[in-house]
Design goal:
Elements lengths: L14 E5 L5 E5 L1 H14 L7 E4 L6 E5 L13 E4 L7 E5 L8 E3 L12 H14 L3
Antiparallel strand pairs: 1-6, 2-4, 2-5, 3-4, 3-7
């Protein structure tokens, strides 16, 4: 539900594109791996991993939204793509808190103002998952 606690970069209805690096940085992970990372983060954060946008068709990308500038503090492992302020513009689709937002949705509910995925925790989960992947 949209209210005064919802960040102004979350649309009131439908979907909108937002420039990465302005309101948030994003780390994108594909398919089942992204779903597994979200599952682990949800368990480690008592169900509040921060804003996570899930794509429900195509490659089924999962976008973990970090505070602006935080993604630069880590070297992200293979399979995790960073979207932030760079030499070229990159946009992330952001769904409304409710209603028809297909093909995007929130992984653990729409964020509140100031709420972001913990970059260090996300980085650790991605590295641990990489170590468990079969060769």
């Amino acid at each position: 539900m949209t209210n005064e606690l919802t960040p102004n970069w979350v649309p009131k209805s439908g979907l909108q594109l937002r420039l990465a690096g302005v309101h948030f940085d994003a780390i994108r992970v594909c398919g089942v791996r992204g779903e597994a990372v979200l599952h682990h983060l949800t368990g480690l954060t008592d169900g509040r991993p921060g804003p996570v946008v899930r794509e429900m068709s195509g490659c089924r990308w999962t976008y973990f939204l970090l505070a602006p500038g935080e993604s630069a503090e880590h070297d992200w492992p293979p399979g995790a793509r960073r979207f932030a302020r760079s030499g070229h513009d990159e946009y992330i689709g952001v769904p409304a808190p409710e209603g028809n937002t297909y093909p995007l949705g929130w992984g653990a509910g729409a964020p509140e103002v100031g709420e972001f995925v913990d970059a260090e925790l996300l980085h650790g989960v991605l590295l641990a998952q990489l170590c468990r992947m079969p060769e």
